[in-house]
Amino acid sequence: MKIKTLDAINLRHALMSISVANKFPFASMLKISNLIDEIERAEILYNKEREVIIDKFCKHDENGERVISEDKKGYLLNESTSPKEVEDSLNELNNSEIDISDFSIQESILSSMNLTLDEYNAIKEYIVKES
To answer: Alpha helix (H) ranges present in the chain?
Structure first.
């Protein structure tokens, strides 16, 4: 199944959070654990590519270190780089797709669990109702 990389990362974080706070039947936990591992491998590659993009566009000091902005909330951009260029490159990365194993979770398993809105939004398209 194809999924946007950023959506996969959000799904992994939601599944980890839900798994810490709740108990699942063994078969469900096994599927969740395998999916978390699968996405984690893709997230490592995503983070490396993100660092390459950031490094490409940010200003570096004489030691080759990224120059931090005065407000300490980010990095200074090269003079030849527009914020739109960075945004476009990061959006392209975020919208890239990865393949993950087919995944679904029964609504009945989740019905007794407390979920945050973010957790629910990350998993809602994978919830299936029993017929």
So the answer is: 5-21, 26-57, 83-95, 107-110, 117-123
Nearest Cα to Cα of residue 20 among 129, 123, 113, 125: 113
- DSSP letter, residue 80: T
State the amino acid at position 106 in one-letter form. Answer: Q
Q: Which of 125, 122, 128, 126 is nearest to 12 (CA)?
A: 122
Reported pTM: 0.80
- Taking only the tens place, the pLDDT of each residue in 62-115 is 999 999 989 988 899 988 889 899 999 999 999 999 999 999 999 988 888 889
Structure tokens at 70: 């005065």
Please answer whether residues 5 and 94 qualify as being in contact, where contact means their C-beta atoms are separated by less than 8 angstroms. Answer: yes
CB 75 within 8 A of CB 67: yes
Which element (helix H / strand E) includes 99? strand 97-99
